[in-house]
């Protein structure tokens, strides 16, 4: 199971990287088209879609690499048993909130598809298409928080601290 989850997180970050390349391509296309005096419609919108996709797709991998910002003012001062309780509590809240975010992200995709919602920009892209990236990203984040909760519950979660005063 660990191997499958790790592949999921790595796949998500690779998709985020592809989206960042998409941003680069759209920006370069826009610049070059202006320099050559022709217009490619939708480059700004597609760059925005790719940027949002990259952000959401990178969330889970960032969490698994312990790169999310954490306020450890209280939890850093706790000993092992109280710290474990606080970690489980905070991860439980994170699982709940990311689960709600996942539910509403996919609900938005479905509603955009049902209502034939399109971009107001001149590209007129059906909005459910770029919204899928958000749904995938928050779904993988939800799985990552469940994974972190389970690792904490079983005592296999690594704790890193950035406080160098005690080292």
What is the strand and helix layout of this fold?
Blueprint: H1 2-35, H2 43-57, H3 59-64, H4 80-114, H5 128-154
Give a verbal description of the structure.
- The chain is mostly helical and 167 residues long.
- The protein has one domain.
- The protein is built from five helices and no strands.
- The chain has helices at residues 2-35, 43-57, 59-64, 80-114, 128-154.
- Helix 1 packs antiparallel against helix 2, helix 1 (2-35) packs antiparallel against helix 5 and helix 2 runs parallel beside helix 5.
- The longest helix is centred in the middle third of the chain and has 35 residues, at 80-114.
- The two termini are 34 Å apart.
Put the structure in a nutshell:
With 167 residues, the chain is mostly helical. It has five helices and no strands.
Distance between the termini: 34 Å
Spans of at least 5 consecutive residues with low confidence? 161-167
Number of helices: 5
Mean pLDDT: 90
Q: What is the gyration radius calculated from CA atoms?
A: 20 Å
Give the strand content: under 5%
Helix/strand structural class: mainly alpha
Helix content: over 70%
Based on the model shown, name its key terms:
167 residues; mainly alpha
């Amino acid at each position: 199971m660990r191997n499958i989850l790790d592949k999921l997180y790595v796949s998500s970050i690779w998709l985020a990287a592809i989206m960042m390349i998409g941003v680069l391509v759209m920006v370069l296309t826009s610049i070059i088209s202006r320099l050559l005096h022709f217009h490619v419609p939708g480059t700004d919108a597609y760059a925005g879609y790719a940027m949002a996709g990259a952000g959401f797709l990178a969330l889970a991998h960032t969490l698994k690499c312990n790169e999310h910002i954490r306020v450890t003012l209280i939890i850093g001062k706790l000993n092992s048993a109280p710290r474990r309780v606080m970690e489980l509590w905070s991860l439980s809240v994170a699982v709940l909130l990311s689960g709600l975010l996942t539910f509403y992200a996919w609900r938005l995709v479905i509603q955009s598809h049902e209502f034939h919602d399109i971009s107001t920009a001149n590209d007129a892209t059906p909005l459910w298409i770029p919204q899928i990236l958000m749904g995938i990203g928050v779904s993988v984040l939800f799985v990552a928080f469940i994974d972190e909760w389970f690792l904490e519950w079983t005592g296999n979660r690594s704790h890193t601290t950035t406080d160098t005063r005690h080292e």
